[in-house]
Write a structure and sequence with these properties.
The protein folds into two domains: 140 residues, Orthogonal Bundle (Ribonuclease iii, N-terminal Endonuclease Domain, Chain A); 66 residues, Double Stranded RNA Binding Domain, CATH 3.30.160. It has a three-stranded antiparallel sheet with strand order 1-2-3. By secondary structure, the protein is mainly alpha-helical. 53% of the residues lie in helices and 9% in strands.
Length: 227
């Protein structure tokens, strides 16, 4: 696939790279990878940490009377994958991500997990290219407007899974008890979740309800969907 000109993207994020290879690495999914097996995964790891630090600093300044619990809830909301995916959409990042043929056909450019990962990878690339201050400026510029928005509670994994499969026209997920182990005072339940056309996913926990949540979360994680 021919690479799109990067200038519009750089204009939207407000940063120009000195090392163009870092930008290419940040925009390369593991289904393609660059020579040497490079993809955006390592930069995503770094960008996630840089984002967390800068947002923590920004929240500390913005809400001087907030408790640690409130700051933590706001932090979790601002750094979660869906928020990063929203930022990526504002940047038009999806059209610039290099994907394998199978990923392109599956509509991966619109998937929160991939958009969020690429957003974090781009932040990591800016950190490597221009240092902490460059990354800090970029994050403050594009996350500042979200500081005062109401915190969005993450959906229960079972709810997310049901909404996803129903949107695809599939039957609702089925949860099947696999077994129980452990003593009566500390039981451990194992549950499998079944979705038409997909392999089962399993989860375990101290109650059937917790095990079902774990199974749904396992299914979503396997499919690259953040919970």
């Amino acid at each position: 696939m021919a690479r799109l000109p990067r200038d519009p993207l750089l204009a939207r994020i407000g940063y120009s790279f000195r090392d163009a290879d870092l930008l290419e690495e940040a925009l390369t999914h593991v289904s393609v990878s660059l020579p040497g097996g490079k993809s955006y995964q390592r930069l995503e790891y770094l960008g996630d940490r840089v984002l967390g630090l800068v947002i923590s600093e920004l929240l500390f300044e913005t809400f001087p009377k907030a408790t640690e619990g409130e700051l933590s809830r706001r932090l979790a909301d601002l750094v979660r994958k869906e928020t990063c995916a929203d930022i990526a959409r504002l940047w038009g990042l999806g059209e610039h991500i290099r994907l394998g043929e199978g990923e392109r056909r599956s509509g991966a450019r619109k998937r929160d997990a991939i958009l969020g990962d690429a957003c974090e990878a781009l932040l990591g690339a800016v950190f490597c290219d221009g240092g902490f201050e460059a990354a800090r400026t970029l994050i403050r510029t594009h996350w500042q407007a979200r500081m005062h928005q109401p915190v969005t509670a993450p959906k229960d994994p079972k709810t997310r899974l049901q909404e996803l499969v129903q949107a695809k026209g599939l039957s609702v997920p089925r949860y099947v008890d696999i077994g129980r182990s452990g003593p009566d005072h500390a039981p451990q339940f194992e549950v499998a979740v079944m979705v038409d056309g997909h392999a089962e996913a399993r989860g375990s926990g101290p109650s059937k309800r917790v095990a079902e949540r774990a199974a749904a979360e396992s299914w979503l994680a396997r499919e690259g969907i953040e919970t």
